[in-house]
Design a protein that fits this description.
globular; 12 helices; mainly alpha; single chain; 3-stranded antiparallel sheet; Aminoglycoside 3'-phosphotransferase, Chain: A, domain 2
Length: 303
């Protein structure tokens, strides 16, 4: 493994080794051994020996990153005397404001998506239309966050958390770049949010990495369909490991809801928020990549 570098490249290198193993294994199963249950349920159990064998030591490293992420959030919430950093409880008004903000952003993003449909390839056009037809369904799923108060804290968070904001030292991870999302005003970057928003950002980054590794030109076109299936499996496995490390380390705090029902509700809300943001970003900046978040949104709807 590389001795040091950013966690994005560290992850892409791990994926290259994983894909090489998938293609070179003569008795590879027809389908990867996927685990049943929701992401939160899978995070509560240890990965099987078979999964560890496929993913290698990265499965332990990404769990380690989950723990370091929890360390970050615990530290950011540790000073109750500072008005800028003191944790604050959620309330219905805040949850309604969260929903209103994301719902409005989704409406703008879907308007942009409609305007871009004529410029898309037939495959992307069909994908975009399938999402547009489900806009009302997505809004109803987002609205669930307003139905009851969630017993959890709001704190200062990283705000723009993904693999590119983490360094791998060869032994551990170091989290950097705390200025928040560059496109937001400074006042908004200081908003207190639930730390699961950062967690959702990293989960999406892992999914992005699994797809970016298929776009680096290393693989034959005829191998991509096989690798695509195994890329989704890899993302499922490492996401569960990252979240498991985070939840174990954050246990006993009010950084996460005390029950899995509210935990899944809030995490899914932030995942929807993130993937909707990604669609808008890619439409404006990298239209060739918009397939990744569009398929991510469809997968989230079916999970």
């Amino acid at each position: 493994m590389p001795n040091q570098g950013d966690a994005w490249q560290f992850t892409l290198d791990a994926l290259d080794r994983y894909f090489d193993k998938v293609l070179s294994t003569e008795r590879r199963p027809a389908e990867p051994p996927l685990e049943a249950g929701s992401l939160v349920q899978r995070a509560r159990i240890a990965p099987t020996d078979r999964i560890i064998d496929w993913v290698g030591s990265y499965i332990d490293r990404i769990r380690q990153l989950g723990m370091r992420t929890a360390d970050l959030h615990i530290t950011l919430a540790s000073d109750p005397t500072s008005a800028l950093f003191a944790p604050e409880p959620y309330d219905i008004m805040h949850q309604q404001s969260m929903y209103g903000s994301v719902s409005a952003h989704m409406a703008r993003t879907f308007d942009l998506l409609r305007s871009k449909l004529p410029t898309m390839t037939p495959e992307l056009h069909a994908l975009g239309e399938s999402l547009i037809k489900r806009e009302s369904e997505i809004d109803r799923l987002l609205e669930r966050v307003t139905r009851r108060r969630i017993d959890v804290m709001r704190t200062r968070v990283h705000g723009d958390y993904h693999l590119g904001q983490v360094l791998w030292t060869g032994e551990d991870f170091v989290i950097i770049d705390f200025e928040g999302e560059p496109g937001r005003p400074l006042s908004q970057r200081r908003f207190k949010r639930n730390p699961l928003r950062d967690v959702a950002g990293m989960l999406r980054s892992l999914e992005y990495a699994s797809q970016a590794a298929l776009r680096n030109g290393r693989h034959r076109a005829e191998d991509i369909p096989v690798l695509q299936t195994w890329a989704h499996a890899w993302a499922q496995w490492v996401s569960a490991s990252f979240l498991g490390g985070y939840l174990d380390h954050a246990k006993g705090t009010r950084l996460v809801p005390p029950n899995d029902t509210d935990l899944e509700l809030l995490l899914r809300f932030f995942l929807f928020e993130k993937v909707i943001y990604e669609i808008g970003y890619e439409l404006n900046n990298r239209p060739d990549w918009v397939e990744i978040p569009m398929r991510g949104l469809l997968a989230l709807l079916s999970s």
